Amino acid sequence: MIRFILLNFLLLSFTSICFSQDYYGNSRKQWLQKAEQYKPELIITEKKPLHIVNVSPDEYAFQKWKVTNIHPIDTLYNMPFRLKKEVIIDFGEHMTGNFCFSVRTTGLAADGPLRFKLTFGEVPSEVAVPFDPYPGNLSRAWLQDEIVSIMYVPETVTLHRRLAFRYVKIELLASSPYYDFNIYDIKCLARTSAKNIPEELPSSVDPMIRKIERVSLNTLKECMQTVYEDGPKRDQRLWIGDLYLEALGNNYSFKQHDLTKRCLYLLAGLSDKNGYLLATVIENPVPRAQDKQFLYEYALLYNASLKDYLEATKDYETAEDLWPVAKKQIDIVRTNVKSNGLMDFEKVNKNWWIFFDWKEDLYKEVPLQGVSIFALKESYKLAQLLGKEKEVADLPALIKKMTKAAHKNYYDKKSGLFIGIGNKQISYASQIWMILSEVATKTEGEKALSALHTTQNVCHPGTPYMYHYYIQSLINCGMNAEAKKALIDYWGGMIKKGADTFWEAYDPNNDFISPYYFYPMNSYCHAWSCTPVYFIRKYPEIFQK
Known about the structure:
By secondary structure, the protein is α+β, with helices and mostly antiparallel strands. The protein has helices at about 1-20, 25-35, 75, 205-225, 240-250, 255-270, 295-315, 315-335, 345-350, 365-385, 395-410, 430-435, 440-450, 465-475, 480-495, 530-540, 540-545; strands at about 45, 50-55, 65-70, 85-105, 115-120, 145-150, 155-160, 165-175, 180-190, 240, 280, 290, 410, 415-420, 425, 460.
């Protein structure tokens, strides 16, 4: 009996220790169950290619490759392929789904297998530039090329791998010389969870704004799978920073809020045992967070995402359920702010990944202060909506202290710009986050943004992610005409270069930009690029007139 009591005591003690090591305890299981409950059904649509095309060098085309239509796709289906050996086809729009094709003999019976190489591209360069030798710094396996062997003809092949593409290059690697064959019935089983159809913009809207909005919707649609993916080609996973922007776009277009709810619950359920959020969740084969992926501003943007979700849906039950997660993320700021009100940049930089943008030379001290204040303000607004102000009663004073410290230490009155202490770099990111955090007054923000255009050696945005925040900062400063022009110039610039979905990294002056040292590795359909639809629909007085 004594041994039995002792064993039970030890088991209870062990269980207590286990739960004390996990900040959220039993809540995780419930959150993950709810995430599964709100997993959307995918809509499968059969899409057919339109043309056989030629991809040829052109000095003036995007990435120096031009696409020319040669024949309608039916020409391929009637063409003996053994002597043709290679063809490039164009679906006419971006696809996310499974590629299918059939083969049949044209006369004599097949006496041997066929082998093909299939290469898929979101943009022309991906089917024109050799992938090897591969110079990139991400896995070569992300590149979309497949070897397919067909042992018996006739046959229909459906690739198991889900792909994201517009163009497909089909190369014959091996076949018997004793029979010929056709390739026919090519299609993509395209998939998305976006089922609602947003209302059309008024016919009076600027034609380029209409194009930008249409491409934004297509970008978001392609990334709306069973989570908000960052890119359907790569990484095919949920990141908090992408979630924040995708949910903004969704709130003003498809309005499928259950997908946002699923993502919020997944991130909570798969957070680290210390209670802090991990930046990214890999969904398949089973949902799991990427270990040790602590990204500072992404963890804080979760709170803004939850606040925006509550405002869009009035779903207080979910917001209250996830409030402990949001409240815990506030500790990231509390434990890293110094007594003088400035964030301890060196400490944060050592313990966290600070992102903000794909720019290797970006100095992040000032943006770090700005996003911290911004997140505290969004968290306090969330607390007010839930009637939880007493639980975060220290925030108003902390916000005031940090705001005063930022203005005192970073604002240069002579130039009208915000500049760091450890590095005197002048960047868009610094001005943007001082404006979005309201450290800068409206007048100071307008002056700072204007000064960027007349200042030398400025660190510019490297991606549409940072450019989103630039557009928002212009709007916050009342620079509406500048905001509209910037949106048209930047996202419209991609359209003029052939974009039918918006890209992960884009520099108007460098068509070959890639964070991964190989431009075909760039994600040419990327979630954080979808937000023009948010701006166009939220601010019709700016963008629709």
